[in-house]
Amino acid sequence: MSEKHMHWSEWLAEKVIQEKKEPYVISGGMTTSGPAHLGTLCEFLFPSVIKKAIENRGKECKFYFVADILDAFDGVPVEMERYSKELGPHLGKPLCNVPDPTGQSRSFGDHYLDEARALMVKFEVQPEIIRVNEYYEQGKFDEHARFYLKHDQECRKIIEETSGKEEKKDWSPIMPICEKCGRIATTRVISHDGETYEYACDKDVKYTKGCGHGGKNKIADHRYKIVWRLHWPAWKQVFGTTIEGAGIDHHTKGGSEDTCKAITLGLMNREYHIPYRYGFILFQGKKYSKSKGTGMGVRQMVVLIPVEIIKYMLLRPDLEENIDIDPTSQNLLRTIDDFQEAGKLILTEDMSRADRKRLIAHNMSTDKPKWAVPFLDVLLYYQIYQDWNEVGRLTKDPEGANYLKQYVEAWIAQEFIPEEYKFKYQPNTKPATENVTKFLASLKSGMDALAIHNGVFEFAKANAIEPKQMFAELYDALISKPKGPRIGKLIDALGVDRVKKDFGV
Ligand SMILES: [Zn+2]
C-alpha cells in the first residue's frame, strides 16, 4: 500500500521498521511552563500512536517524554497572576527550582508537568516521563557538554549557518546556573578549558537581570544546561532516539531541526533519527498564545466530551495540516457523530483513503468503543426522563449511557446544548390545535420514529396543510417551542401511548 493511502501513524511505523534497527525509541518533550493546551496533547498523543502503530506490527517501542524543566522561568502565566509577587523574584531560574505557589507540586515546572501527567493518564498514554534536570544532575549530559565545549567554535558556526543568525560574541554551548542567585537566564561563560568554566551573572534579559556574581564551576558539578539547539541533538543520543517529531516551526528554514541534523551528522558523526513534523493546532483559526491563553482550554474540553473524541479530532487530519479546533456544540456533535460512523467502517484494501484515515484515527483513539447509542439520543432521552436508569433502558445501551452521563450533565449545566436540541416536554400548557389532536389520535402503539415522521407528511398532505406548519404546531404543543428535535424521534422517545394519554386522544 502506498504511503498516500495510509494514516500517517502507519506510514511512519513502516518507515521506522524498514529503515532502522531495533530497539525502537520514540522521544518527545516540552517545557511545562504553563497550562496545558491542545498543542500540549499532541506532544504526547502523536508519539503514542506511532508507538502503537509500531507495536501493531509486532515490534517493541519505548516512548520517552522529556519534561524540559531546567529551562528558565520566563513569565507568569495568566492563571498564576495572583501569585505574581511570590513568583517575581524567581524569574530567570530553572523551572524546577521555582517553588510552586499553590503548594501542590514540588516545583513550578512540576506543577504543569503534573497537569500533563494527569492528562496522559486520562488519555491513556503511558510514556516514561523524564524530568530532564535529573538527567543533568546524574551527569547524563556531561559527555555532550564536554564535547560541545571542545568543539565550541564549530558548534557556533553550524548554529549560525543553520539558523541564519549571528550569535553574540560571548556565545557558549552551555548556560551556567548562578551559584549565588540561582538564575540560568542571566549568566554567560567568560572562559573555559573544556571542563572548568568561568561565568558572570550579569545579563539583562528584559524580564529579569543578573545579580552581578562571577564564579567558577566544573561540568562535573552539573550546574548548567546545554543551549536548546545543542541540547536537542544531545537528548537524542542520550535516549537513543529512532524517531522524533516537532512542530512545523522547528522545521522551517532556520529552525532548530536543521541545526539538530547538522550537529548530529556533521559534528557527532552519528546516524540521524527519522524526523517528522506536524502542523499548528489552531483554536478558532488562531494560534495558541501562552501569555493570553486562547478560548476553551483542554481542562474545559475534557469536561464536555469524551477523550476519545478529542483524540479523534487531533488524529484524523493529515499530520502536516494545521488543525483548527472550533469547539462549538454543533461542531462537537458533528465530530462525535463522525467518530461513531467511522467506528462502523470495515478495513478493506479498496476502501477510500478518506475512510481509511477515519477508521485508523478512530481505532487509534479507542481500544474498544465505550458507547454505541448516538450521543444525541442520550441528550434527548435524558431531557425527557431526567433518569439515567430509564435512559439506559430506552437506549438499550445502559453502560454507554452511563459513560456519557457526565458529559450530558455538563452540557445541560453549562447550557451548551444547541437551541434546537434543548427542550422540556410540557404538554397542555395551552389547548392543542385541531390538527395536533387529530394527528396524535392517528398514531398507533408500536409506531417507530420513522413511521411517525412519515406520518406527519401523510397527515399534512391528506389535510392540505403545509408540512412546515404541521411541524410547528406539533412543536408548540409538545415543547412550547417553534423548533426542536426530529418529531418522529421525539414522539418515539416520549412514547406514543404516553403522548396520546397526555393529550386525551
Ligand atoms: Zn546570579
From TrEMBL:
<keyword id="KW-0067">ATP-binding</keyword>
<dbReference type="GO" id="GO:0004824">
    <property type="term" value="F:lysine-tRNA ligase activity"/>
</dbReference>
<comment type="similarity">
    <text>Belongs to the class-I aminoacyl-tRNA synthetase family.</text>
</comment>
<protein>
    <recommendedName>
        <fullName>Lysine--tRNA ligase</fullName>
        <ecNumber>6.1.1.6</ecNumber>
    </recommendedName>
</protein>
<dbReference type="GO" id="GO:0000049">
    <property type="term" value="F:tRNA binding"/>
</dbReference>
<dbReference type="GO" id="GO:0005524">
    <property type="term" value="F:ATP binding"/>
</dbReference>
<keyword id="KW-0963">Cytoplasm</keyword>
<keyword id="KW-0547">Nucleotide-binding</keyword>
<keyword id="KW-0648">Protein biosynthesis</keyword>
<dbReference type="Pfam" id="PF01921">
    <property type="entry name" value="tRNA-synt_1f"/>
</dbReference>
<dbReference type="GO" id="GO:0005737">
    <property type="term" value="C:cytoplasm"/>
</dbReference>
<dbReference type="InterPro" id="IPR020751">
    <property type="entry name" value="aa-tRNA-synth_I_codon-bd_sub2"/>
</dbReference>
<dbReference type="InterPro" id="IPR002904">
    <property type="entry name" value="Lys-tRNA-ligase"/>
</dbReference>
<dbReference type="GO" id="GO:0006430">
    <property type="term" value="P:lysyl-tRNA aminoacylation"/>
</dbReference>
<dbReference type="InterPro" id="IPR008925">
    <property type="entry name" value="aa_tRNA-synth_I_cd-bd_sf"/>
</dbReference>
<keyword id="KW-0030">Aminoacyl-tRNA synthetase</keyword>
<keyword id="KW-0436">Ligase</keyword>
<dbReference type="InterPro" id="IPR014729">
    <property type="entry name" value="Rossmann-like_a/b/a_fold"/>
</dbReference>
